[in-house]
């Protein structure tokens, strides 16, 4: 039977949720206008005052915030509470440039951890579980967020942080971990190490994994589920709106429920800023309606996905977002064709390769080149040149069918591609060096 952390909120009727959001939004806009001169200026420039925002129907009138605004306002420019009321700072991973920092009051920490508790409960977590958190701890939000959520649920929490993979597995066995939280790329690495240690999923007690912080494909999900003998669930979040737990997957494993009582989502056309109807793919925008210290309004995440209110079998009424296929700035334009690294990952896993790969893009004689280094496992490895060339050709053909452009595939020897313990780096775009 499905369990909820906060049934009243998670299964609230649409009308009641809208009422709650309306009230919270009106109060939040006022709070920000009065306390954040940076955002007040943006509202003034757009000719909007807090009086213009009477409900969520008026959300589109507010100006957007972008990562550039965060960088410009760094470090204190978007703070809405005195520093003396803040108890924590976290920071983005800096995947796409200069890091930004976020501030939390104790109230903000509580609501963030509460969102993570909902995620843990949704995968079946209770106080009888042993929850091994191997997201990085520190400024990165992954470790602290799930750690806090795990405490709230009452799980026995193992604050492992990432790295030292054999020790992770040893603790997992000795202490009987039942839930694991980390990036999907690290989960794949842990699965690989488990098998290398001569163990199978029967030697561990894990039943569920909560994986996020980077894009991952359905093929990757199946591969992790098999290697660890678990159900693998997605979790999404970003430092700018607390951290992980903005949305989370339920037993249906088909998209993530957004904690709408805290974050109002919109999908916009990234070029025009126009709000798109439900179901269309576009850039995800969040408005934080309960955060005190760092309440971003209409923050453009650059993550691309779609929203749906279709009924979910778990009973939750919270709106769902599809798995983000990557950020708008992850998209590579190669010879005029849009390419997402996740499309390449899909083909690789379908063709029986492990998700150990590195994509290199360059420009030679004014033409874009796409090189994909893919690791073979020991069974795929061969010392016959011809075998390898045949396999490379086959894989290149499958990728061409998916993308419409031909890559050069290089099969490389087992263990030659660096494993990720946090967010994996899958792409090196050398064209940026020439610009
Ligand atoms: P950075 O933006 O520097 O990576 P964060 O650590 O705050 O900093 O990461 C947030 C970003 O991570 C999101 O905007 C999104 O691009 C990515 N992300 C987080 N969870 C997921 C997920 N489940 N699927 C895909 N991408 C995710
Ligand atoms: Zn559901």
Verbal overview:
It contains 12 helices and 20 strands. It is α/β, with parallel strands linked by helices. A 9-stranded mixed beta sheet has the order 4-3-5-6-7-8-9-14-13. Strands 19-18-17-20 form a 4-stranded mixed beta sheet. Strands 10-11-12 form a 3-stranded antiparallel beta sheet. Helix 6 links the parallel strand 3 and strand 4. The longest helix has 22 residues. The mean pLDDT is about 95. The structure holds adenosine-5'-diphosphate and zinc ion (ZN). The site of adenosine-5'-diphosphate has 19 residues, from strand 7 and strand 12.
Distinctive features:
4-stranded mixed beta sheet, single chain, alpha/beta, 435 residues, 20 strands, 12 helices, 9-stranded mixed beta sheet, 32% helix, binds adenosine-5'-diphosphate, binds zinc ion
């Amino acid at each position: 039977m499905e369990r909820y952390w906060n049934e009243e909120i998670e299964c609230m009727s649409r009308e009641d949720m809208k009422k709650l959001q309306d009230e919270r939004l009106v109060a939040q806009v006022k709070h920000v206008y009065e306390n954040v001169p940076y955002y007040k200026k943006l509202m003034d420039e757009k000719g909007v005052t807090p009086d213009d925002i009477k409900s969520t129907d008026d959300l589109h009138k507010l100006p957007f915030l972008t990562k550039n605004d965060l960088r410009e306002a760094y470090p204190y420019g978007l703070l809405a509470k005195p520093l003396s009321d803040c108890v924590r700072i976290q920071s983005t991973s800096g995947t796409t440039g200069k890091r930004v920092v976020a501030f939390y009051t104790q109230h903000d920490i509580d609501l963030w951890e509460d969102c993570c508790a909902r995620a843990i409960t949704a995968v079946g977590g209770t106080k009888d579980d042993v929850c091994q958190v191997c997201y990085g701890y520190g400024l990165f939000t992954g470790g602290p967020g799930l750690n806090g959520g795990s405490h709230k649920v009452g799980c026995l929490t193992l604050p492992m942080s990432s790295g030292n993979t054999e020790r992770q597995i040893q603790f997992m066995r000795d202490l009987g971990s039942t839930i694991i939280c980390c990036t999907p790329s690290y989960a794949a690495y842990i699965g690989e190490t488990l098998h290398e240690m001569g163990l199978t999923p029967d030697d561990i007690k894990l039943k569920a994994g909560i994986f996020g912080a980077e894009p991952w494909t359905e093929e990757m999900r199946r591969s992790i589920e098999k290697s660890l003998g678990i159900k693998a669930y997605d979790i999404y979040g970003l430092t700018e709106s607390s951290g992980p737990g903005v949305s989370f997957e339920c037993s249906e494993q088909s998209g993530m429920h957004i904690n709408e009582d805290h974050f109002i989502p919109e999908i916009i056309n990234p070029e025009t800023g126009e709000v798109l109807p439900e179901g269309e793919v576009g850039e995800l925008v969040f408005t934080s309606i309960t955060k005190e210290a760092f309440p971003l309004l209409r923050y453009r995440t650059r993550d691309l996905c779609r929203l749906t209110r279709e009924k979910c079998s778990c009973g939750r009424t919270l709106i769902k977002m599809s798995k983000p296929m990557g950020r708008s700035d992850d998209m590579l334009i190669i010879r005029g064709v849009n390419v997402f690294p996740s499309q390449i990952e899909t083909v690789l896993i379908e063709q029986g390769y492990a998700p150990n790969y590195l994509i290199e893009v360059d420009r030679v004689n004014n033409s874009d080149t796409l090189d994909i280094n893919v690791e073979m496992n020991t069974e795929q490895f061969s010392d016959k040149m011809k075998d390898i060339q045949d396999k490379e050709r086959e894989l290149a053909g499958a990728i061409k069918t998916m993308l419409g452009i031909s890559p050069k595939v290089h099969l490389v020897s087992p263990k030659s591609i660096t494993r990720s313990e946090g967010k994996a780096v899958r792409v090196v775009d050398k064209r940026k060096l020439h610009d």
